[in-house]
């Protein structure tokens, strides 16, 4: 099975030598769960996107420091591509910025939250609509790092994860679109370094709480296996 990974940012120079790229983190994450996974990388910043997206192919949109509501040419180009891909029945998976980009491109709304940053390991509630993907889970723990949030879902989209801080932390649209605000691909070590880089943006208490939360076991691998199963189902379409 092949995953087409659309990279929407570059890592900071001090993190590149060890972690390489957002796409590499996803490749490492999914390959650890299934060594047969193949990946192709595309550069959204350079408007280099997969040609002729189609049903049966998997397209993953990564995180980014950019905001889905910003007026950059590459973001407009990516939104148009998403609309075409969705119309063609392609399987679309978005994480963090990718989650927000999918929502914005398909009719939802995204904005910077007045509640501030969501950082560290957070446990959110699954919804009644999430049973097909998140069966057997009442809550899901993932690593988070975001200020922006999806504030309104696209028409006919179903929320999958929710809490008071982030009501639309995951959603699905039909059977071909799945999006999560959290980061199953982030390692604890990478997250610690990311938090340290952004330390000035958090209160001391918020920073300490987020770092301490990283000692918790997350559901990243469990979710990764569920997403791989969904991808396999999509390749048979």
Automatic annotation (TrEMBL):
Pfam families tied to this protein:
GATase
InterPro entries, per this entry?
Answer: ChyE-like (IPR044992), Class_I_gatase-like (IPR029062), GATASE (IPR017926)
Keyword vocabulary terms for this entry = Glutamine amidotransferase, Transferase
CDD domains in alphabetical order: GATase1_1
Q: Which GO terms describe its molecular function?
A: transferase activity
Domain of life assignment: Bacteria
What's the protein name?
GMP synthase-like glutamine amidotransferase
A single cellular component GO annotation: cytosol
The Glutamine amidotransferase domain extends over 79-191
């Amino acid at each position: 099975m092949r995953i087409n990974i659309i990279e929407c940012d570059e890592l900071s120079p001090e993190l590149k030598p060890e972690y390489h790229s957002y796409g590499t983190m996803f490749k490492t994450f999914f390959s650890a769960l299934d060594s047969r996974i193949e990946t192709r990388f595309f550069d959204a910043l350079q408007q280099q996107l997969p040609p002729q997206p189609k049903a049966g192919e998997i397209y993953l949109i990564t995180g980014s420091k950019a905001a889905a509501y910003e007026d950059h040419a590459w973001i407009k180009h990516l939104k148009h591509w998403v609309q075409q891909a969705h119309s063609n029945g392609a399987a679309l998976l978005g994480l963090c910025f990718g989650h927000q980009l999918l929502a914005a491109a398909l009719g939802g709304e995204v904005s910077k939250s007045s509640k501030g940053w969501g950082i560290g390991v957070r446990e959110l509630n699954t919804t009644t609509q999430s049973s097909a993907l998140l069966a057997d889970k009442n809550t899901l723990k993932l690593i988070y790092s975001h200020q922006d949030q999806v504030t309104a879902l696209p028409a006919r989209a179903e929320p999958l994860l929710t809490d008071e801080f982030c009501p639309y932390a995951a959603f699905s649209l039909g059977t071909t679109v799945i999006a999560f605000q959290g980061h199953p691909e982030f390692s604890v070590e990478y997250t610690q370094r990311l938090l340290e880089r952004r330390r000035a943006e958090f209160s001391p208490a918020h920073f300490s709480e987020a770092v301490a939360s990283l000692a918790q076991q997350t559901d990243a691998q469990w979710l990764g296996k569920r997403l791989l199963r969904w991808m396999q189902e999509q390749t048979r379409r």
